[in-house]
Design a protein that fits this description.
This protein is an alpha/beta fold and 238 residues long. The protein folds into two domains: 92 residues; 111 residues, no CATH class. Helix content is 64%, strand content 10%. The protein contains eight helices and five strands. It has a five-stranded mixed beta sheet. Strand 1, helix 4 and strand 2 form a beta-alpha-beta unit. The longest helix has 47 residues. The two termini are 33 Å apart.
Length: 238
Amino acid sequence: MTGMREKLRAAMVIARRDFVAVVFSKTFIFFLIGPVFPVLVGGLAGSIGGKVQQNVERPTIGLAMSAADSQAMMRARVELQGRVPGMIPEIVMLQEMKPGETFDARAALADGDRQVSAVLGGSLDKPVLTAPGERARQWVGVVSNLAARARSSTPTDYPDVAVEEVATSVAKVKTGQIYTAQTSQVMLFLLTMLLAGMVLSNLVEEKGNKIIEVLAAAIPMDAMFMGKLFAMLAVSLV
């Protein structure tokens, strides 16, 4: 009976020691607040990535038309903004074309400094849209509407838009690069969390083994294991 009482007392000492060591340790505190970090980091990364993506993916049409036609197209966009369903792309001036002058729209789409999604050339009567296939199909109606509005404030005739498709553009390439960067960012974060957890687990295990060696020499093994079991049950209730 006395031996059992001594074992229980030793077990309670071990349980109290393990409970205090675990609950009031930095590791346990980080364990409790650990799930918050992925949410914060993910939200921050998503916010930054969203802003960058919004800036890069902003649809922009570059104009390579005469000065009068370009100004009329810009006025038409301002007038139609908010009046028609869907989003009207931004319009920027690439080059004021003079009679007989030519413009390489494909080179403009491949130019990293311009960063336009499409190039609109020709005239208001015969606009020519150069863009990747998806963008071209999406913007044909918008360009026709803008050209008609640029010709008349009350348009009744909408010009046909000639389309020249290209394989890709700088804006589309940058969009793919952003998706790749965001995926790599998530993978790097997950790997960092995994490796940090493995290192922390190894350190805790090594420290625990040294403590067990000292305790095993001072008290019976069954009392030590019983105390650790009590401590684990108490920690699980926290």
